[in-house]
Amino acid sequence: MLFLARMDVNFPDSLTPEQTADFQAREKEYSGNLQEKGIMRAIWRVVGEYANYSIFDVDDHDELHTILSGFPMFKYMDVKITPLSKHPNALKYYLHEG
Amino acid sequence: MLFLARMDVNFPDSLTPEQTADFQAREKEYSGNLQEKGIMRAIWRVVGEYANYSIFDVDDHDELHTILSGFPMFKYMDVKITPLSKHPNALKYYLHEG
Amino acid sequence: MLFLARMDVNFPDSLTPEQTADFQAREKEYSGNLQEKGIMRAIWRVVGEYANYSIFDVDDHDELHTILSGFPMFKYMDVKITPLSKHPNALKYYLHEG
Amino acid sequence: MLFLARMDVNFPDSLTPEQTADFQAREKEYSGNLQEKGIMRAIWRVVGEYANYSIFDVDDHDELHTILSGFPMFKYMDVKITPLSKHPNALKYYLHEG
Amino acid sequence: MLFLARMDVNFPDSLTPEQTADFQAREKEYSGNLQEKGIMRAIWRVVGEYANYSIFDVDDHDELHTILSGFPMFKYMDVKITPLSKHPNALKYYLHEG
Amino acid sequence: MLFLARMDVNFPDSLTPEQTADFQAREKEYSGNLQEKGIMRAIWRVVGEYANYSIFDVDDHDELHTILSGFPMFKYMDVKITPLSKHPNALKYYLHEG
Amino acid sequence: MLFLARMDVNFPDSLTPEQTADFQAREKEYSGNLQEKGIMRAIWRVVGEYANYSIFDVDDHDELHTILSGFPMFKYMDVKITPLSKHPNALKYYLHEG
Amino acid sequence: MLFLARMDVNFPDSLTPEQTADFQAREKEYSGNLQEKGIMRAIWRVVGEYANYSIFDVDDHDELHTILSGFPMFKYMDVKITPLSKHPNALKYYLHEG
Amino acid sequence: MLFLARMDVNFPDSLTPEQTADFQAREKEYSGNLQEKGIMRAIWRVVGEYANYSIFDVDDHDELHTILSGFPMFKYMDVKITPLSKHPNALKYYLHEG
Amino acid sequence: MLFLARMDVNFPDSLTPEQTADFQAREKEYSGNLQEKGIMRAIWRVVGEYANYSIFDVDDHDELHTILSGFPMFKYMDVKITPLSKHPNALKYYLHEG
């Protein structure tokens, strides 16, 4: 099943540049794995904001929460989830069928 | 360039079922054309709401506005556009590169 | 999978009492069926408002949207869906396990 | 009487991992007791967020506030309460009758 | 138990002055009964707005909803309920103890 | 004249438990005096929140602001004031006439 | 005592130009009387909006509500009241002392 | 030209009482000068809040911004500006003509 | 002086296509005149919405309100005005100096 | 293509005056370069607020995000982007054509 996620990142000012870079490196690796596994079907940057829209394809809420709360930067992220279904006007089930 | 669109439909109560059906038929055809042309890269239904999230790939704002305001149901739609760019953690430019 | 739904009903003033009563009767029947099938696990009235909170147990977004948009009063309802997962402090998966 | 509670947790960045873990352990124990006593009838995780929806069955506001403000993490929680009553379409008084 | 209610009235423009007056007369009578029974402990007008704040003393959510949805003008009212409990600094349980 | 006040308390995390307790003790005393003088006609706890609704009977805005800004915890409080008048359906001017 | 009022006018589309003009004429006369009596101490137009900010000097909430709800256009106005007091940095009590 | 300003003050908890008092003293002096020059035509305290409404009479946006950003407490203030014009029902151009 | 205006158009469903077209023609002419006179320095369409951002250069609020409320479609427009001044980092006073 | 940007600056209180001044100097230089290159077509100060409205002319979202996130003060800025297109009533494509 598909979920649209909006994630806004708010690092506290107390983090050092090194800590921030470390978070970002681990986040990149974590995100890469999800993409390779086909769990994260897409991710885009919101232009001008430290935020992303991403599409997850997961068949279980518990699994999805484990994935989302597993992001290294989860503590500093405001995450909103929107369940998506196939649109009646869609020619195909985008990002869902393989 | 990619744009995320959220579209919420609010038909006034004064429309007859026939008028509504006609709008929806023309909207489906219009949307189908956009998908075939690769302008509308994806469209999903927001579960539980008469709304969609869709991804447009257009290289010009004027063209994009012409497309959006050309939807048969545009008058009854609340549309919000969010410009998207490639995310630094993305393994590919999803829905953008062919 | 569990979903919390908040549904707010806004009947237009143009409906006659008979039309309203007919909608409500069909809604009651529809809702009863969902409860008997174990799809709607619970439903409560929000005190003081023409609104409800309800819990749906459905394993597919497309099925869930079909169910929700199938409510007779869907056209007059503002519906918000929140995906739920098992809480780490929960002694059991409430309303989910049978 | 049933109350729906939405609780959002916002730990300040100044807490050490040990302090956070201690809070969470005491919260788990406190929550478990409430569930065993039938005061907390249900609790779910909001997918993607450090938040829960939970159902309380308490017959007195003073008692309910004592319970809620007694949560170890109360100081770091944003809590919203919604009184619930039996829905006219409900086949039973979910989570209320035993 | 005490509940604070905020009620905002929005009559549609289609009501005739006579219909409006009739609603208001029935609402006044209904409200008077509740006050005499000690169910509605207080009611005030919000200065400058067609709205009121009122205090209800009811020991059951189902009863409270029946009371609130029984207001003749319920259909044209936006009602928000806030459960109240005794404040630790209160010298007495205002409007609650007889 | 009657004023409804909603007060939300937000203590910064930097306060020690002793400082917090001291604030609360002074606030309790201050609030008690206002109640004895009939200035604060009522105060209730908002169930589940570190907030109160209270009714002030003061005949002058300057006096009211002096009273409100005199609360020991004023610096940590978000206060919203709503002027109240006698409701046309009220059987008496609640909390106003002695 | 001084009150700042913000009033937003929303005429329904069903009013004829004559009805609208009649409302506006009666409103102008009503407003003029209030100004002559020193009740309405000032009124300004919010640039670009069918709205005003105005200052009322009234010593009683009941009187103020009678005045505000007496505006011919009250039914079509959204009114928000803010109680004002003398500012500690003010060289005089503007619009209050004669 | 007249501008209505709403200013909300939010001192960080890290300021010492002495620093706060110093800010307030400089602010009082600065505000007094503006009033004497007829630039600040009026200022009132919002009852119950560390905020003010004030009226500025300035003929140039650049000058107005210089004035506003020159307030000693500007860094700790949330300022919203509303341009005002003469109301068609106003008997005079309040606070504008001398 | 420069003002940024955001204008959102909401035509009621009761207007006929002919009425709408007439409004739009008169609006276009009115807008053209303002641009020729250098009063309206710029106007853009908000992509995907029946709304515009426009820049006005007017030296008097009363004149600006007359201009804005003179738009043929004013009755159906939600207008928000933001006063602009020269930015300290601007290489020139854009759209202001000739 | 044109984009309207609203940027609100929120420096944390922990920055020293020297750090703030350094940020502002680098921001001024960065902004100057963008203006010279015709990328930033305009920038204005929002009167009374530490915020700006600016117009960017960039033909690619990725480039635009790189530019925006390259602002020295990006970490302390809340940025909202609105895509603009040519308005049907515009006599020219303001700030777009040369």
UniProtKB/TrEMBL annotation, chains A, B, C, D, E, F, G, H, I, J:
<comment type="pathway">
    <text>Aromatic compound metabolism; beta-ketoadipate pathway; 5-oxo-4,5-dihydro-2-furylacetate from catechol: step 3/3.</text>
</comment>
<dbReference type="Pfam" id="PF02426">
    <property type="entry name" value="MIase"/>
</dbReference>
<keyword id="KW-0058">Aromatic hydrocarbons catabolism</keyword>
<keyword id="KW-0413">Isomerase</keyword>
<dbReference type="InterPro" id="IPR003464">
    <property type="entry name" value="Muconolactone_d_Isoase"/>
</dbReference>
<dbReference type="InterPro" id="IPR026029">
    <property type="entry name" value="MLI_dom"/>
</dbReference>
<comment type="similarity">
    <text>Belongs to the muconolactone Delta-isomerase family.</text>
</comment>
<protein>
    <recommendedName>
        <fullName>Muconolactone Delta-isomerase</fullName>
        <ecNumber>5.3.3.4</ecNumber>
    </recommendedName>
</protein>
<dbReference type="GO" id="GO:0042952">
    <property type="term" value="P:beta-ketoadipate pathway"/>
</dbReference>
<comment type="subunit">
    <text>Homodecamer.</text>
</comment>
<dbReference type="InterPro" id="IPR011008">
    <property type="entry name" value="Dimeric_a/b-barrel"/>
</dbReference>
<feature type="domain" description="Muconolactone isomerase">
    <location>
        <begin position="1"/>
        <end position="89"/>
    </location>
</feature>
<dbReference type="GO" id="GO:0016159">
    <property type="term" value="F:muconolactone delta-isomerase activity"/>
</dbReference>
